[in-house]
Amino acid sequence: MVEFSRSIPCGAELMNLAEDFRRASWGARERTWAMSLLKGQKTYLVSHTNMESLRQQFESPELLKAMEAMKIRSYIVLPLTVRDQILGSLYLISSTRSFTEDDAAFLEEIARRTSISLDNARLFQKQEEAVRSREDVVQIVSHDLKNPLFAIQMGVEIMHHILDSGLSTSTEQALRTRLEGIARANDQAVELIR
């Protein structure tokens, strides 16, 4: 059976503290530290910590206040990277236990899979945007083609009426053959844009 000490935040209180941590403004020291972690693309594991060592590492009062409220005992920062591209980082904080090297190995696999999932979602979104753009272009082009094709169709019908009024047989046959070719090409174009 697991027992929870009331001195350790849980439930809604923990969610509020996590939100405070996320929103805390990071000072120059914290930003430099975070960027060096991201650039190194290595897991950063702190098995045991206390507020004194956190105060030496971090300078933001808001961040330190959130960390103190969460009673941080151990933390791990994992880079989220895919194809040598940095997507972000995953911070895990524990107030009840110390993260180990085994935890780090397991969490690195979680971070790797998370990175792939985030990248796949980004690629899918990009593909969806490309499909929407292509469909918009096709819709515009097909609309713009309908007017000239309608004019061609009307021209073919007028030429048929002229032919029906009488021309020499050879001229009439040559014109009818060409008009039938134009009409077929027009019908095919109309079918393509529907």
Question: What does this protein look like?
Answer:
This protein is mainly alpha-helical and 194 residues long. Helix content is 68%, strand content 11%. A hairpin with a 2-residue loop joins strand 2 and strand 3. It has a three-stranded antiparallel beta sheet, with helices on both faces. It is rod-shaped, with a radius of gyration of 35 Å. It has two domains: 11-99, Beta-Lactamase; 128-193. It contains six helices and three strands, in the order H-H-E-H-H-E-E-H-H. The chain has helices spanning 11-23, 28-40, 51-57, 61-70, 101-164, 169-193; strands at residues 44-46, 74-82, 85-94. The model is unreliable at 1-9 (pLDDT under 50).
What is the SS-derived class?
mainly alpha
Percent of residues in helices: 55-70%
Gap between N and C termini = 67 Å
The overall number of domains is 2
Tell me about the largest β-sheet.
3 strands, antiparallel
Shape: rod-shaped
| Rg, nearest Å | 35 Å
Largest sheet, order of strands side by side?
1-2-3
Show unreliable segments: 1-9
Number of strands: 3
H/E element order: HHEHHEEHH
CATH topology of the largest domain: Beta-Lactamase
CATH 2nd-level architecture of the largest domain: 2-Layer Sandwich
| Rounded mean pLDDT score | 78
Please indicate the percent range of residues in DSSP E strands (runs of 2 or more): 5-15%
